[in-house]
Structures are given as C-alpha cells and as structure tokens.
Design brief:
single chain; alpha/beta; Rossmann fold
Length: about 650
C-alpha cells in the first residue's frame, strides 16, 4: 500500500526542484499557452457581455454598431494600458502593484481586495454559466443536479491547478481552441452572407440617432448609449490577468507578456465586436430561455445539411457546448491570477505570509485552496443563480482598472521630462481612465440596489482584514527588530582555532530563522536551564522558496548571504565562549520537509541530541494571531517525537 507521500506524488505529480535552471523553463508559459490560460476569462465574456449591452438599447438596436466599434476600441485601450503595466512591472503584480507603487499602498490594498473578490466571482459565475449552458440542452428533470455538478467542477479545477499551471492549461486547451475556431468561422460566415447589409449599418445608426435627438434630445441619446456601453462592461473582465502573472511567462517575460496581450486583445475585440454585428445583421432579439448568441447562431446555421440531412441542431449543440466549456476554462483563470494577487499582497503584509508559499509542484497551493473554497461558498449561498452572480461580479474589475490607469496617468505626467514617447502613453492612459471611471460610476449607480452594495460590502471587509493583518505584522516586526538590535553585537569575532566537535557528547540543536533575536533567546535559555550539559551546539536554518523570490537570482544571493551571516553569528558566539558549534542550512518550498531532512542528517552525525526551537507568545493572543504565525515548530516537534527524539519549544513573549 502506498504511503501518504507516494499517494500525493501519484495524484499531483513528483516535486520540482526550484533551483534547477530547467525547472522554470519547464513551467514557464509561452505566449500561446498564456493566451489560453489567462485570456479565456476575457474571451468567455463574449458569451454574455455583448448581449447585456445590446439588450440595454431596447428598441433602438440600430445604435448597436456604435457599441461594436466602442467595444473593440475599449478592449485595445485597456490592453495597451496593461502592456505599459507589464513594461513597468516585469515581476508581476498587475493592477495591485501599479496602484501600490504609483498611487499609494492603501490604493494598492483597495485594488488587491477588489481583484481577490473579482477572481472568486470569476470562478463562481464562469462555472455556473457554463453549467447553465449545458443544462439548457438537457431535460428539466435533471435540473436538481446542477448545483452538485458546479461544486464537483470546482473540485476538479482545484485538483488540476494543484498539479501545476501548464498541466491545467494543456488539459483545457482543446476547449479553448474549439471555441475560437467555431466562433471565428460563424462571425466571418455570418457577416459574409449578409455582406450587402454591412454598408448600411452606420448610415442606419446615424439616421436613428438623428431621429432620437430630434424627438427626445441629445442628452437622452448619449445617456442610452452610455448605459448600454457600461452594462456591457463585463466584456472587458480578464484583461488584467496577464500583468498579474508575468513571473510565470517564458523569457523574455516582457516580450512574452506583450505578445500575450496582443493575442487577447485581437481575439476579444474581434469576437465581442463581431457578435454584436451578427445581432444586427441577423435581427437577433430576446427569446425566453435563449441567449442572443444562440438565437443568432441558430439563424445562421438554419438549413445546414450534410448528405441531405439537417445537422444545424447538432452543430448548434456543439457550439453552445464549446461556449460552456470556455466558461470552465475562464474559471481556471481565477485559480491562476487570484493566488498571484494574494501572493503579492502577502509579500507586502496585507495578507498572511503563507499565501506566498509554494507547493512541491511550485504552485501557490494555499491561494488555490482559498479561491476554491470561497467560490464554493459563493455558489452555495447564491444557489448558482447567474443573475445574482452577474450583479456581484460587475463592479470590482473597473475599480481596479480605474486605479491602475490613474497610477499610469500620474506616472507619465510626473516623468514627462525624462521618458521618451511619454505623450502617446499619457494619452492612452488618460483616455482609458476616463472610460473606466465612467463605466464604474454608471455600473455602480445602476446596480447598487440590485446587489452591487453586497460586492462593495464584501470588498470593504477584505480591506479591513488587510489593514488589521498589516498592523499586526508591523507591531511584531518592530519588537523582533528590537530583539535583533539587542543581540547584533553579541556574535563575537571569528575564533582562530574553534573548539572541536565531539560527536559522542550531548548535543543541542537549535532550529532558527533569520531573526537573530529569537535564536539567541533560545540559546541563552538553554545555557541558563542546562548549564554544562551540552558540549556541541548545532544551528539549523531553512529559507523558504516562495512566489516572490523563485525566479529572482539577485534576490536569492541576498537571502542566502543573510542566512549564512545569521548562522555565523550563532557559531561565532559559541566559539568565542569555548563552546563547539556548527551549522546546517537549506532552502526549499516546504520548510517543514526541509527541516526534517536536515534533522535526519544531524541525528546520524550526533546520536545524543535534543532539539530546541522558539514560539512567539502574545499578551492578547487570539485565534487570528495563531492563524498569522504558522505552527511549524509544533509540526516538527510531532515528527521528532514520532521518531523517538526530544524537542523543546521555548516561549518568546512579544
């Protein structure tokens, strides 16, 4: 029977070495794979975004050609802005990093909180919409299975993403490509068949606008168009995903990111704009229980036959099934980009540190798990009702867009005298800012009492949690810094002939981190409690490979140097006082696993051994402080106890 580790490797795959140069190459995404993995969210919005905008025009559908043009232009405006984000922030972070660096840290918190909520809703609404599309092809007697299927699909996506980014994308690739090919063909064919109607679209729209202006005034016409344009804002969701996930792109990352953005912009502008044109040319109108896409595609495929047999129904089923499948691929974007935002916020101490931790497969396991659990809760609370989810989903993405474009506009204004080609970039950022703020204001106003207030409430709660976490980490960091300062000069000089280790004598092993204060606290307590007992002193330290430093070579040099200096401090302190000492150091994605490997080595070298570590104790300790500060010491203690060795955890009050 397989043990737990073997079972884990069988299900999720064997671990990856973060220090092997080939590893990053193997998991990095080329532009084509990034387009599939990160562009599906935006492309899938063509299943519902253009429809919502078109229906908002009511009986004035001739204005739809303006919507098609405005939609395509807006896609490119936002995409160009996020190309600038990729250039300025090649280490990722997207809208969160832009707002933090160019507007202010609290603006970054707001942007990050909005993105986290938005990606949870991306998963929930995409899965719910996809399942709705599939169940529209099934008998009503099976509707009671819908919520169960949605929850099951969430579990499947969590499992796929825990195996690795490339693995999840490759499995979902055929669905994405099937959608692109079928919809591109239908748009081109549908426009070609009605080519004689294309030249009249703009004249008809101008005539309709003129009549409406005379009858109801220009303000009414402008208001109607802006409302329709804003309510179709869901079309642009997902355009920020690439900038959040730059670190996983193949080198050169900036070039790959720009190419990915080009693929996304072209495919989304063509699909969303083309579908609106199809609505106009084929006279699509609302029908109970049918999407406008289904109505338009049914009209286009009517009478299609093979060998005299009508196949339009079968082909329509395939096309709608691919739409449902693409929505599932779009849900996967939430599992890619959402944990990336959490990791960036964790590195800035707005979120718990463990959200930046990587699994043995080098994926952000805790972020993936949180996104999965949160989306499950959303589905259960809303019973998978897409009409409710759409309202919750519609606001936050434009809050992030607005903050990002505000930051870019400020940046180009500030650096207009030092940066070349600043004016075109300032204009594109400024225009994008006006467009996004307009959509945000109108959408919030239109949908506030329809459930938009709930999105703002949830996002506000995430912001408050972020403020509390940052405040808590800040207080503890200050106290630990004081402890470090207290012991900074205690290391002593390097001893020319340090005392020799005696492997037959009692040995004290200290599991320490990069905080000298906590390690010295443990050492001094042992010397005070057990005077003269231990003849050897061993110091063990493991650096964590997380999402913030995986691919940064220079950053690793600094981290490695700091860890070596910390361990030298302990060894020099002991040697200067006539005590034999040595140290062990390692790096890995799982700190506990690496510590366990080192303790096994130490036990072989020093049979008579007792392990020591420290644990932070708080005066007002709560479940939240326990949540923020991991329990690694207790996990290691249990493992050593199971092996028959002693480990003592010494309290350090902060």
């Amino acid at each position: 029977m397989m043990n737990l580790k073997a079972t884990k490797h069988f299900l999720l795959g064997p671990p990856r070495d973060p220090f092997n140069k080939q590893t990053h190459h193997n998991i990095a995404l080329i532009a084509f794979l990034a387009w599939i993995g990160l562009g599906a969210d935006g492309l899938s919005s063509s299943c519902y975004g253009p429809e919502e905008a078109f229906l908002a025009l009511g009986s004035h559908t001739s204005l739809g050609i303006y919507l098609a043009i405005a939609t395509a232009l807006t896609v490119f405006i936002i995409s160009i802005a996020y190309t600038q984000v990729i250039e300025l922030f090649p280490n990722g972070g997207g809208g969160y990093r832009v707002a933090s660096s160019l507007v202010g840290p609290h603006a970054g918190l707001i942007s990050g909180a909005a993105l986290i909520v938005d990606y949870v809703l991306t998963i929930a609404i995409s899965v719910a919409s996809g399942v709705d599309a599939l169940f529209s092809l099934m008998p009503e007697s099976m509707l009671h299975m819908k919520l169960f299927i949605e929850c099951f699909l969430i579990f499947v996506l969590v499992f796929l993403n825990l195996r690795g980014v490339k693995e999840s994308i490759k499995i979902l690739m055929p669905i994405f490509l099937g959608f692109v090919i079928t919809h591109a063909f239908l748009i081109i064919y549908g426009i070609f068949i009605h080519a004689q109607g294309v030249p009249t679209l703009i004249p008809d729209a101008m005539s309709e606008s003129h009549k409406m202006t005379e009858a109801m005034g220009a303000i009414f016409v402008a208001s109607l168009f802006l409302k329709a344009f804003s309510l179709g804002g869901g079309t642009y969701t997902g355009l920020e995903a690439v900038s959040n996930y730059v670190t996983t792109l193949a080198e050169p990352r900036v070039k790959t990111g720009k190419m990915t953005m080009l693929f996304i912009a072209l495919s989304l502008a063509f699909t969303a704009g083309g579908i609106i044109v199809l609505y106009l040319l084929w006279g699509a109108h609302y029908q109970e229980g049918q999407t406008l896409n289904a109505v338009a595609f049914r009209s286009i495929m009517q009478g299609w036959s093979i060998g005299g047999k009508d196949v339009s129904g079968i082909l329509l089923t395939i096309v709608l099934s691919l739409e449902a499948g693409l929505l599932l691929v779009a849900a996967n974007t939430g599992f890619l980009a959402g944990p990336a935002v959490l990791a960036n916020m964790a590195s800035d101490k707005w979120m718990p540190h463990f959200f930046s931790s990587l699994s043995s497969r080098l994926v952000r396991k805790n972020g993936i798990t949180l996104m999965g659990v949160s989306s499950l809760l959303v589905l259960l609370l809303t019973l998978g009702d897409v009409s409710v989810l759409v309202v919750l989903y519609s606001i936050n993405v434009f809050l992030t867009f607005s903050l990002s474009l505000l930051g870019l506009t400020k940046y180009w204004l500030k650096n207009r005298h030092t940066k070349k080609s600043w004016l075109p970039k300032l204009i594109s950022s400024g225009v994008g800012l006006i467009v996004c703020v307009s959509i945000l204001v109108i959408t919030t106003t239109e949908k506030f009492f329809a459930g938009g207030w709930l999105t703002l409430l949830i996002t506000s709660c995430v912001i408050v949690i972020g403020l509390w976490i940052r405040n808590s980490y800040g207080k503890v960091s200050q106290k630990l810094a004081l402890a470090d300062e207290l012991f900074a000069s205690s290391g002593g000089k390097v001893t020319a002939e340090p005392p020799a280790l005696d492997h037959t004598q009692q040995t004290a092993v200290f599991i320490v981190n990069d905080c000298i204060g906590s390690g010295m606290h443990s050492l001094l307590w042992v010397l005070r409690l057990f005077p003269g007992v231990y003849k050897n002193f061993v110091f063990v330290s493991v650096g964590e490979v997380d999402s913030g430093n995986l691919a940064e070579t220079e950053h690793w040099r600094v981290i490695s140097r700091d860890f070596k200096n910390s361990l030298k401090h302990y060894v020099n302190y002991c040697n200067a006082r006539g005590m034999a000492a040595t140290s062990y150091m390692a790096f890995g994605t799982d700190v506990v696993e690496k510590v366990s490997e080192l303790t096994d080595m130490i036990i072989k070298d020093f049979p008579k051994v007792v392990f020591f570590s420290s644990k932070l104790i708080f005066e007002d300790e709560t479940i939240f402080t326990q949540f923020l500060y991991n329990q690694n010491a207790y996990i290691i203690q249990r493992r050593l106890h199971n092996q028959g060795y002693n480990m003592i955890i010494l309290p350090m009050k902060v």
